[in-house]
Amino acid sequence: MKSEFKIGLISDTHMPGALKTLWPGVFDFFSGCDAILHAGDLHTLDIVDALSKVAPTYVALGNGDEGLTDPRLAEHWLLTFGETQVGMMHHCPSPERKPATVIEKQILKRMKTLPDILVFGHTHFESITEVGSMVLINPGSPTLPHNQTLRPGTLGMITLKAGLADFALYQIEDGEVLPHPTIAALTRASTSVAISV
């Protein structure tokens, strides 16, 4: 059984467009991940193919992904990593604006149970939020952060180790991927570090 497990997080790449490949440092950042979760708005499968060369990649279809079909893409995912359930969907009501009951209702419309962790995108605003017993994490956008002009944005990482789950956001900057300058990482108890997908 693995003693540490890494899940890379990315969303809202909106590629290709003005940018044909991800910024330098992104693929190195995901190197060594056991899985990569993309929370949607791809526009083409190019980025999925590129990420899949680094680690198994799962994508939650976004509003900009109409017409894309591939076994790595689904409207939502409920993945089991040992005893930890990680859900993913593109759009989730904002935890900063909506009460837990609204968020939980929207998740249960898509999934049979509330996950331990929910990965989502759509807003282009990175965040880590505790909602009841869940942790919600939005990795933001690596290409159009905060819905502004094309520039290096953000990524996320979940690490399971020794009964703990670590959630962290990162800023892409000058070819490097650095810890987020203003959003602190979060650590919570985790029941398992094994994986089965």
Q: Can you walk me through this structure?
A:
This protein is mainly beta. The chain has a single domain (4-189), classed as Metallo-dependent phosphatases (Purple Acid Phosphatase, chain A, domain 2), CATH 3.60.21.10. The chain contains three helices and 13 strands; from the N terminus they run βαβαββββαβββββββ. It has helices at 26-30, 46-52, 100-110, and strands at 4-10, 35-38, 57-60, 73-74, 76-81, 84-89, 117-119, 127-131, 134-138, 154-161, 164-173, 176-179, 186-189. The strands form two sheets. Strands 1, 2, 3, 4, 10, 11, 12 and 13 form an eight-stranded mixed sheet that branches. A five-stranded mixed sheet has the order 5-6-7-9-8, with helices on one face. α3 (100-110) links the parallel β6 (84-89) and β7. The two termini are 15 Å apart.
Tags for this model:
197 residues, mainly beta, Purple Acid Phosphatase, chain A, domain 2, 3 helices, 12% helix, 35% strand
Number of domains: 1
Fraction in beta strands: 25-35%
> Mean of the pLDDT scores?
90
SSE string: EHEHEEEEHEEEEEEE
The CATH superfamily appears as: Metallo-dependent phosphatases
Please provide a brief summary of the model.
The protein is mainly beta and 197 residues long.
Which secondary structure elements does this structure contain, and how are they paired or packed?
Elements: E1 4-10, H1 26-30, E2 35-38, H2 46-52, E3 57-60, E4 73-74, E5 76-81, E6 84-89, H3 100-110, E7 117-119, E8 127-131, E9 134-138, E10 154-161, E11 164-173, E12 176-179, E13 186-189
Parallel strand pairs: 1-2, 2-3, 3-4, 6-7, 7-9
Antiparallel strand pairs: 1-10, 5-6, 8-9, 10-11, 11-12, 11-13
